[in-house]
């Protein structure tokens, strides 16, 4: 019977160095790719967080406007950058400062939106008023309902107008 020889083949120093060099280049390329991917993921996460903050601010602004008893502009109902919100006898303000929409209630201040260009309250006799806010080049339009007392008085006046009541 023939005896089988099991010998291990060795590599020379030059072959070992070439393998180590190629492995190092591949490892460095893989690390650079991972670093690039992690930077892209971090940027995308930052964009998503900022978009989430903007959506949250829009939602909170909508909640403020729907729960307010009345909304008035700074110059006696004007269309300035300062709005007064009244709710349950308390006065709060909504203003734009340093390209941000800021809600102020006494000492409490809250930044609702960032990248705000301008804010304007548009009065409308036939329907709800509209608050226009320029946010990052997009126009955000939110309805501002009239106080219940005012809309009730207007509705009663419309009903009575058609019935022709005579004053004694």
Layout of helices and strands, plus pairs?
Elements: H1 13-67, E1 70-73, E2 82-87, E3 90-97, E4 100-105, E5 108-114, E6 116-122, E7 129-135, E8 138-144, H2 148-163
Antiparallel strand pairs: 1-2, 2-3, 3-4, 4-5, 6-7, 7-8
Q: How do you describe this structure in short?
A:
The chain has 168 residues and is an alpha+beta fold. It contains 2 helices and 8 strands, in the order αββββββββα.
Shape: rod-shaped
The neighbouring-strand order within the major sheet is 1-2-3-4-5
Number of alpha- plus pi-helical segments:
2
| Strand tally | 8
From the alpha carbons, calculate the radius of gyration and give it in angstroms: 34 Å
What is the end-to-end distance?
Answer: 137 Å
Mean pLDDT: 83
Helix content: 40-55%
Quote the beta fraction: 25-35%
What ranges have pLDDT less than 50 throughout 5 or more consecutive residues? none
Order of SSEs: HEEEEEEEEH
Q: Which class best fits the helix and strand makeup?
A: alpha+beta
What's the story with the biggest beta sheet? 5 strands, antiparallel
Note down, in words, how this protein is organized.
With 168 residues, this protein is α+β, with helices and mostly antiparallel strands. The protein is built from 2 helices and 8 strands. The chain has helices at residues 13-67, 148-163; strands at 70-73, 82-87, 90-97, 100-105, 108-114, 116-122, 129-135, 138-144. A hairpin with a 2-residue loop joins strand 2 (82-87) and strand 3. The longest helix is centred in the first third of the chain and has 55 residues, at 13-67. The chain is rod-shaped. The chain starts with 12 loop residues before the first helix and ends in a 5-residue tail after the last helix. 10% of the residues are buried.
């Amino acid at each position: 019977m023939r005896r089988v020889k099991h010998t291990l083949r060795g590599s020379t120093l030059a072959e070992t160095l070439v393998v180590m060099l190629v492995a190092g280049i591949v490892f460095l390329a893989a690390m650079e790719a991972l670093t690039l991917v992690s930077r892209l993921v971090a940027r995308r996460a930052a964009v998503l967080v900022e978009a989430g903050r903007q959506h949250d601010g829009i939602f909170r602004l909508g909640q403020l406007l729907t729960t307010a008893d009345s909304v008035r502009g700074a110059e006696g109902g004007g269309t300035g950058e300062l709005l007064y919100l009244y709710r349950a006898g308390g006065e709060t303000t909504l203003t734009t400062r340093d390209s941000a929409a800021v809600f102020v209630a006494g000492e409490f201040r809250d930044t609702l939106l960032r990248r705000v260009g301008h804010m304007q309250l548009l009065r409308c006799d036939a329907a709800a008023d509209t608050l226009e806010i320029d946010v990052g080049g997009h126009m955000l339009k939110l309805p501002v309902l009239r106080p219940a007392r005012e809309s009730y008085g207007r509705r009663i006046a419309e009903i009575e107008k058609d019935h022709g009541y005579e004053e004694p």
